[in-house]
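Example record for the data management plan.
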Amino acid sequence: MKKKISISDSELKLIVVLVVMVCLATAYFFGFNKGMNNAKEIEEECVAIQSEIDSLQVMINNRVNTEKETEAYKTRMKEVIEKYPVDIPEEKALYLLQKIQNETDIEVLSLSYLGSNMKVNNGNGIAGYYDEVAIVLKADYVSYKAFMSYVSSYPDRMNIDNSNISYDTETGDISGSATIRMYYLTGTGKEYEEIPDFEIENGVSNIFGGEAITKTTLE
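Corresponding structural encoding:
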């Protein structure tokens, strides 16, 4: 005959408490581990997201810098293009030479239009050229300095490519030859500016004593 086990109320309560504690401990242990795993996954995702954010920020910064550089480049290109006409046919070269002569009081004894030459071609439709005009001139010291300054500071790009000048100590006159280069750009989208009517002399006075005999109006 089996012997019955008698459990008092206090023992029963103690057993219940122990069972509850074991359940709580088990739930906490597994729940804590799962939570730790979730936290690790979340942390890894945050790291990955932050890396993407950093990459995007670098791209944004580069884009801003690139846009600024592009705008600066466009502005610079516009400034450069504004300094060059789109063409200098022979009549415009002669017109510019006459302006130089009138503004500086040099005397042009003879001149030769040497034609146009390509200077640069960037392959995108824009090409740079220059026209050359060779002159024999005579001037006093002040007028010659004004001539040099006028050419170098003229709004449209031009320069004195070479010169062979002598100074007369008795008269104070400067005489000799110079080649003026007048630069222009094609393919920039600018329109050619027509020159006003002006007169040039045929048979200008020269170093051999010839005098001007007629005038021709260029239109």
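Summary line stored alongside the record: Residues 9-82 form the longest helix (74 residues).
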